[in-house]
């Protein structure tokens, strides 16, 4: 089978043959995107939260590659989620500055739950002033990385860190009461259940322990940048604004590589829509603020560096990009559901909303105004024999595993929350189980078959990119 796949790759992409590719150049830059004014609203919870300081800086970590014919940019931003219109604006500004086509840019959010709100979800509305600032800074970061382009060598690595990822959706024993915020009781799973509960049956899905790494060195073999991908939602133990464990990883991997000034570490969020760092089979251990982020980041950074022990660096490889919009349906409330929501909101009039029922009542009224269909961007970047797949959702782990399994390239990673934000992406089977990630809201609204259609589109884009 591997020989057949290798033959297929060769037939589709003769320009991938050794020696046929031009010399590679790379540039990296970490642009500080910490807000300059406080307080700011923070995404990540049902209720709005105001923050008056930053525990550590937030960044848009930018990487630009150039094979002499094609240029592409990869950006990882310390943000919870970034709407498509903001990312498109940043790409437009960056394209003017650099000449890199907007279609050749991948911009993703880490999903830290301690960054300023730039998407209006649940009780938090986007901070208009910070949103303008972030868009400008992302574009400036890409421009800085582009300016830093210089001859480079690239290698890939794959390792595993299974001890930091746990599926957060649990099947419950028969007869256990499990209400949803719409007045129903048909959910078969619960997200983030009580730890060590006797009501828990088994996790509702898998985890993905893989740490996928793309390492870059300059012409003198000094570390230039390291892009990694790991399927963990976030950690969430930092006070004030924070890049969460994603930022700690960037510092940790730099130290482990003994990298010099200007090195940029990027950790993108993989397919972690149903995965976090909580082992629900055990009691909660005691940690100091930030301690768990440091432990997780060190473990992932250790695996990332270990993956490069036998890596072979090359300076010649072709860059290919394929992207397209696919039209997907929106799950909208019925007239009766809207009526019920309006009654709930009327009772809460004059005060802040409390609890999930009131929060989802507001979401129901807002979802009624959504369009029936939306255009969702899907993207594939090929860097030699390495594939980066971009999906603009909080993608369930089993989808990422399926994409990797079906990929024509051995080294493939999937970046979530990339090029926009379209809520959670469960499989149809997970939709049938119910649970928080499937509850209709601005955080989860795509049609039930969305994952199937997106997987199909990715397969088509992979073939399209390889044929260029």
Give a concise summary.
This protein has 468 residues and is of the alpha+beta class. Helix content is 29%, strand content 25%.
Shape: globular
| Tally of helical segments | 10
How many domains?
Answer: 2
Mean pLDDT: 94
Please give the alpha-carbon distance between the first and last residues: 24 Å
Question: Could you give the count of β-strands?
Answer: 21
Q: Structural class of the secondary elements?
A: alpha+beta
Radius of gyration: 22 Å
Enumerate the strands of the largest sheet in spatial order, edge to edge or round the barrel. Answer: 6-5-4-1-7-12-13-14
**Major sheet summary line:** 8 strands, mixed
Task: Describe what you observe in this structure.
The protein is of the alpha+beta class and 468 residues long. The chain folds into 2 domains: 2-167 and 203-328 and 371-466, no CATH class; 333-367, no CATH class. It is 29% helix and 25% strand. The chain contains 10 helices and 21 strands. The chain has an 8-stranded mixed β-sheet. A 4-stranded mixed β-sheet has the order 16-17-18-20, with helices on one face. The protein has a 3-stranded antiparallel β-sheet with strand order 10-9-11, with no helix packed on it. Helix 4 (244-256) crosses helix 5 (291-306), helix 6 (335-347) crosses helix 7 (355-367) and helix 8 (397-406) packs parallel to helix 10 (450-466). The longest helix has 20 residues, at 128-147. The protein is globular, with a radius of gyration of 22 Å. The protein starts with a helix and ends with a helix. Mean pLDDT is 94; it is low at 1-19.
